[in-house]
Amino acid sequence: ANLVLLPGDGIGPEIVAQARLVLESVATQFGHEFSFASHQIGGIAIDNGGDPLPQETIDACRASDAILLGAVGGPKWDDPSAKTRPEAGLLKIRKELGLFANLRPIKLFKELVDASPLKREIIEGTDILFLRELTGGIYFGPSGREGSGATESAFQSMVYSVPEVERIVRLAAKAAQGRDGRLTSVDKANVLEPSRLWRQVAARVMAEEFPDVKYDVVLVDAMAMHLINRPKDFDVVVTGNMFGDILTDEASMLPGSLGMLPSASLGDGGPGLYEPIHGSAPDIAGKGIANPLATILAAAMLLRHSLNLTAEADAIEAAVGRVLADGLRTADIARGSDSIGTEAMGAAVIQRLS
Amino acid sequence: ANLVLLPGDGIGPEIVAQARLVLESVATQFGHEFSFASHQIGGIAIDNGGDPLPQETIDACRASDAILLGAVGGPKWDDPSAKTRPEAGLLKIRKELGLFANLRPIKLFKELVDASPLKREIIEGTDILFLRELTGGIYFGPSGREGSGATESAFQSMVYSVPEVERIVRLAAKAAQGRDGRLTSVDKANVLEPSRLWRQVAARVMAEEFPDVKYDVVLVDAMAMHLINRPKDFDVVVTGNMFGDILTDEASMLPGSLGMLPSASLGDGGPGLYEPIHGSAPDIAGKGIANPLATILAAAMLLRHSLNLTAEADAIEAAVGRVLADGLRTADIARGSDSIGTEAMGAAVIQRLS
Ligand SMILES: CC(C)[C@H](C(=O)O)[C@@H](O)C(=O)O
Ligand SMILES: CC(C)[C@H](C(=O)O)[C@@H](O)C(=O)O
């Protein structure tokens, strides 16, 4: 398989390097051939050519089987008056590759349950799969300014169409069939017209195509509450781009170990993009102490979803579990006790692969 | 003062009745005259005339000094094909009275710290005042449908203008001056044009008019995370209508005692509207077990913000504190031990007023 690496900024290169070593070890062990090509995205791409997503990166991604991304952004590129920003590369690659579904599993490693800001009895047993719509909604709606001076106003429109809702709901319902068979759709249908369309279409798709999946709807404000006081009640959750941005970030705090959470962005047939949920952590970049496990788990998602290599994905996830069971921790999850560095953690996973 | 009561649906009438008794007791004790007139809103108003906000309710509210609301809504009016819904009354009264600022204090009663889903060391000391913009943004933007059948789409536009941002930021900054002097503005300026306008206007207002207030900005997705793992870092938080809807509900879960949280919706000069944050709780309506304390604390906010009766507001808040210190609990906050009913709780507050 032909894999593209997009290390990006901050700790990106360090963590992607470890995930690559893990993938290489899997290839040897299971007899696959993976080729790797690195390309630029984000701040580094701006530095080198003014464009956070150069055309040659897009072309390479399109021609690949799957993409592994580190992280983009950092204070260096935060100037509000800058012509472009690293995040623009992220939004553009989603749209260019038609990555309409962002999958974020929120799972608790039992060894890390004490890292959660929530009480043990609330968080224990939490296992949610979020599907966030990623190429529509208010993110990509018409926007602009009107008037000037004291009467200036700005607008941006949330738009959803029937096919956009259908495809993400179908994907979510299929995911639910492979899990606990329950799907929750989150919207704001009591206020927003696109949410009313979303709710109608989702109800029809579920009734016609997935009568076996237990389906319910929750308002976005209520969901923001439920995630905190009864997270273990949810199986698969599907929602729009903006609500998904907020709710998945909220949910990612629940396990208390952001450095452990991967995500996948999938389209229709083309290459998927895999990345850790955490950011580029510029404060610790280059120090060799970043936690590579989320990126390694993203590589496992890549094997599972883009290459259909289930046993290989399982092997990586089991190895990560064993590393934790053996008490190995990077600084971010060490809670004050001994920790190891990025490379040592990568090596520890590889050692436990077989 | 001329007060309007809008008991509404579910437990609304029970809890508003107790808040009224508390206000009457304050009036006697401090030598004021409060007149009370009850009017209809929400489901009960739909049942009695088809309109969730009858004109006579609007007229009475306009002519009043302040309004105390119970709660609206319930399964009885949840039919998605219904012509109107109780919540429409709520949205309309905000717009009709120009209530552009929703104030939600998120405060922990030290007696109830164990009710929080968060660990004690995370939540203890949390004291945030949210200001949510309430009459603009995507809630009231242009909306509609286009196309039909398989290509139908729906839109609703988020719109913010310079004066809309200025007035809510000014109110928030003034609130910060009366507290710890720190203000956080929450937006999604990396994606949304209205957020970019919001950020520009807020920065200008803060620099020109409030150089003494420590000001920063946070993205809405990051804020959804911070609220969970470092809630005590925030003083006053200001944000738009949609983000405020989600974040204030998220924040309201942190203390773990929704039945204790009041809110105020204020306009420019006209009457303010005060209410508990919790809903109409149809499952316990009429049973006499609802917690009236959030509504009683809303009455205290009414005295403070609309009638400028600070000592009186302080007296109510202190009485509520004493009730808790004395171990009195309604069922929702009793955590399995003995509880008292709605009327007994109201009476207990009144007894401790003097
Ligand atoms: C960087 C930003 C544009 C992006 C988003 O809002 O989608 C990020 O928050 C994310 O969730 O991947
Ligand atoms: C009922 C609903 C329309 C309302 C809102 O979204 O504003 C409610 O959630 C609130 O926060 O007061």
UniProtKB/TrEMBL annotation, chains A, B:
Q: Any idea of its EC number?
A: 1.1.1.85
Q: Which residues form a coiled coil?
A: none
Cofactor(s) annotated in UniProt? Mg(2+); Mn(2+)
| Keywords on record | Amino-acid biosynthesis, Branched-chain amino acid biosynthesis, Cytoplasm, Leucine biosynthesis, Magnesium, Manganese, Metal-binding, NAD, Oxidoreductase
One GO term of the cellular component aspect?
Answer: cytosol
InterPro entries the record matches: IsoCit/isopropylmalate_DH_CS, IsoPropMal-DH-like_dom, Isopropylmalate_DH
Tell me which Gene Ontology terms the entry assigns under biological process. Answer: L-leucine biosynthetic process
Q: Which residues bind Mg(2+)?
A: D221, D245, D249
List residue numbers at the site (Important for catalysis): Y139, K188
Q: Which residues bind NAD(+)?
A: 74-87, 279-291
Q: In which pathway does it act?
A: Amino-acid biosynthesis; L-leucine biosynthesis; L-leucine from 3-methyl-2-oxobutanoate: step 3/4
Catalytic activity reads: (2R,3S)-3-isopropylmalate + NAD(+) = 4-methyl-2-oxopentanoate + CO2 + NADH
Please give the chief subcellular localization of this protein. cytoplasm
Q: Where in the cell is it found?
A: Cytoplasm
User: How the cofactor binds, per note?
Assistant: Binds 1 Mg(2+) or Mn(2+) ion per subunit.
- Which molecular function GO terms apply here? 3-isopropylmalate dehydrogenase activity; magnesium ion binding; NAD binding
Residues noted as binding substrate in the record, renumbered to the chain: R94, R104, R132, D221
Concerning its family, UniProt says: Belongs to the isocitrate and isopropylmalate dehydrogenases family. LeuB type 1 subfamily.
The record's PANTHER family line, in alphabetical order, gives: 3-ISOPROPYLMALATE DEHYDROGENASE
- NCBIfam families hit by this protein: leuB (TIGR00169)
Q: Kindly state the subunit structure of this protein.
A: Homodimer.
Query: What protein does this entry describe?
Result: 3-isopropylmalate dehydrogenase
